[in-house]
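Inverse folding, one chain.
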């Protein structure tokens, strides 16, 4: 079973991204063949500086490798390193009804958020279909917001196969990642870059400590008992603590005499030590750009070989060869 995942490079990742998306992806390496790429071409809808794009792409490579994507076991590459994806997107766009794209919520949402309504934004789902179909993916784990794009992908694959009378594309299945545990941000809302309430996985020590210390709490005095179940601080703590530590913390909340400042310090220590090994790995990789480049090139070659098996057939079918 081939599992394909694309992640847009966004500069820095927060613990919501990690727990909601990256950790499940790293774990999926145990279950099947993982194909994972950094969707830099998709980021062009919002990142319009070349130097920032380069930097974000490198950060994403470092983040994912440090957090456990294994380039030997999985196929891990940067989208633009296999440019055939853009070629396939063009072929697919010729079987894409306008109405199908006009119905996409993500496009309408982006317009509502004042992103410029250009053709790149409009045809985003076609490029995403090309990502998926080029690699003959069976399963695509995505958040709810991306489900419609997988439906578009399925429609296009079925249409293309029917038009050219050959089962050239595997029809992919979406696997909806339920945000079972929505990670709260420092203000108690869902953690999100757009709310400015994030805790970064690889944040600088002082800054991260400051952010942890800014987590909102209620004004219950130190000596009073506190309810762990309504506390953002406790909710964040339990995401990284052992069962024993979690149970003990709940008891300490209920017993009274526990100040939120103490809990914040403990949460910081927990977070800092949780990612210690990954942080070291990331620093080592960052200090060795030649090695990183080698991993990137090898990943691209591996992905390219899979892509070409599809492209050879597609080019013959559309008659450009
Ligand atoms: P942001 O809201 O910060 O812009 P993205 O939308 O780029 O984050 O998130 C990328 C992925 O990370 C999402 O598909 C989702 O699975 C996961 N994710 C983001 N925020 C959270 C959160 N607070 N809790 C759980 N998962 C999250
Ligand atoms: N559009 C996805 C997102 O915003 C990222 C993405 C691009 C993707 N291509 C993909 C996800 C292919 C899965 C499969 O999160």
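Residues assigned per position:
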């Amino acid at each position: 079973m081939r599992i394909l995942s694309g992640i847009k490079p966004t500069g820095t990742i927060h613990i919501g991204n990690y727990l909601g998306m990256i950790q499940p992806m790293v774990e999926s390496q145990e279950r099947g063949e993982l194909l994972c790429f950094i969707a830099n071409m998709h980021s062009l809808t919002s990142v319009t500086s070349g130097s920032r794009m380069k930097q974000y792409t490198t950060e994403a490579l470092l983040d994912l490798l440090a957090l456990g994507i294994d380039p030997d076991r999985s196929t891990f590459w940067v989208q633009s390193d296999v440019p055939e994806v853009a070629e396939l997107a063009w072929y697919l766009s010729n079987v894409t009804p306008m109405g199908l794209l006009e119905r996409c919520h993500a496009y309408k949402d982006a317009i509502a958020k004042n992103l410029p309504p250009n053709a790149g934004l409009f045809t985003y789902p076609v490029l995403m279909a090309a990502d998926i179909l080029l690699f003959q993916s069976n399963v695509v784990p995505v958040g709810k917001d991306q489900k419609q794009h997988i439906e578009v992908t399925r429609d296009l694959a079925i249409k293309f196969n029917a038009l050219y009378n050959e089962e050239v594309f595997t029809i992919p299945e979406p696997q909806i990642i339920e945000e079972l545990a929505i990670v709260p941000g420092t203000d108690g809302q869902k953690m999100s870059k757009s709310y400015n309430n994030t805790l970064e996985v690889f944040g600088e020590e002082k800054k991260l400590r400051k952010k942890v210390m800014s987590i909102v709490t209620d004004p219950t005095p130190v000596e009073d008992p506190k309810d762990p179940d309504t506390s953002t601080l406790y909710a964040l703590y339990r995401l990284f603590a052992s069962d024993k530590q979690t149970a003990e913390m709940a008891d300490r909340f209920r017993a009274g005499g526990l100040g939120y400042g103490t809990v914040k310090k403990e949460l910081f220590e927990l977070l800092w030590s949780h990612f210690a090994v990954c942080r070291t790995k990331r620093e080592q990789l960052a200090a060795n750009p030649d090695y990183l480049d080698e991993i990137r090139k090898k990943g691209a070659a591996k992905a390219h070989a899979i892509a070409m098996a599809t492209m050879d057939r597609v080019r013959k079918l559309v008659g450009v060869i």
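The chain has a mean pLDDT of 95. The domain at 2-182+288-318 is CATH 3.40.50.620 (Rossmann fold).
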